[in-house]
Amino acid sequence: MLTILYATISFTLVFITYYTTKKIYKNRYKNAYRRNNNQRLNSVYFPPSQNDILNLYTVATSRTQGLDRLIKSCNDHGIGIHVLGISNKWQGYGNKWLWVAEYIKLQNLPDDSVVAFVDAYDVLALSNPDEILNKFKSFNARAVFSAEIHCYPDPNLSKDYPFSNSRFKYLNSGGAIGYAKDIVRIIDAINFQTTDDDQGAFTNYYLSHPGEIFLDYDCKIFFSLFGVSENDFQLDDFESRVIVMESDQKPCFIHGNGTSTKLLDALHDALSTRQTNS
After folding, report:
1. Is the CB of residue 71 less than 8 Å from the CB of residue 48?
2. What is the three-class DSSP state of 168?
3. Are 177 and 136 in contact (CB under 8 A)?
4. In this prediction, what percent of the chain has a pLDDT beyond 90?
5. Is 263 exposed, middle or buried (0-12, 13-18, 19+ CB in 10 A)?
6. What is the Cα–Cα distance from 35 to 28, expressed in whole angstroms?
7. Rounded to 5 degrees, what angle do the CA atoms 210, 115, 255 make?
8. Which terminus, N or C, of the chain has the lesser number of Cβ atoms within 10 Å?
9. Pairing mode, if any, of strands 170-179 and 114-118?
10. Whole-angstrom Cα distance, residue 264 to residue 155?
11. What is the CA radius of gyration of the chain?
């Protein structure tokens, strides 16, 4: 009986020690992150096959098939890509933009440098850096974000959006491009917490700061697939590109956001077949 009592007490002490230590470690991590982010940010750079004229970033804490597919598509089109956060601890979607801003500052880029961001696991690059930059400059804007069909994460905000003839009229944070100074300024102004919903945060900023962020209504650069049907696009007959029927544009990146991952997979397979046969 005494042996059982001792065993119970010992188990209880071990459990309490483990739980307390885990909690202390977790709090230490969070505090250390707040004090000095750059000691915890890992990055891997995959250089372009041509001159590096575009600073493209993505955030991924682990290597997956989707990330490898993005890296390969960038390499195929001469785009270098910085993968931030490999093996870092993921705390939430706010991490993406805190790390992007931090890394841009560490690079000490000139204010007029153009930087871009795409999600890591469900995006394909379909164009070269020159086309991406030329399309961005055609907006005459400081920052351009991807647009999608659905108003997410808060559908009630759809009534606050400005009028647009395009079905793609709601901000999507899975793709963005702009001048380094302005992208960092917007991220800093939002004051991201690691657990924030990044799309919700950018949506609120967009609606409360008219004219600071442009949306890619015509899918010139970014094409978000969530809510899209096969009638909304077609494959180009002469190159491995997608044509958006509504705007007759060939986007530079396609994004299988939401539940559209299978559509992205199908497009990837179809485009890869065309590239192989061309």
Report:
1. no
2. coil
3. yes
4. 77
5. middle
6. 10
7. 80
8. N
9. antiparallel
10. 24
11. 22
Q: Are 133 and 54 in contact (CB under 8 A)?
A: yes
Q: Does position 25 have pLDDT exceeding 60, yes or no?
A: no
Letter for the amino acid at 15?
A: F
Q: Give residue-wise pLDDT tens across range 202-219.
A: 999 999 999 999 999 999
Nearest to 144 by CA among 53, 73, 222: 222
Nearest CA to 233 out of 219, 244, 247 is that of: 244
CA distance 126 to 207: 30
Rounded Cα–Cα distance for residues 78 and 66 (Å): 19
What is the structure's pLDDT at 41? Answer: 85
| Cis amide linkage into residue 162, ω under 30° from 0 | no
* CA atoms within 13 Å, Cβ hemisphere of 173: 22
DSSP designation for 211: T
* pTM as predicted: 0.84
Residue 257 has pLDDT above 50, yes or no: yes
DSSP 38-73: GGG--EEEE--SS----EEEEE-SS--HHHHHHHHH
> How many Cα atoms sit within 13 Å of 14 on the Cβ side?
6
**pLDDT at 136 > cutoff 70:** yes
Total Cβ atoms within 10 A of residue 209: 11
Element (H, E) at 74: helix 65-76
**Greater pLDDT, 21 or 234:** 234
Half-sphere exposure (Cβ direction) of 157: Cα atoms closer than 13 Å: 18
**Which positions ≥6 away from 229 have C-beta within 8 Å?**
none
Pairing state between β 170-179 and 81-84: unpaired
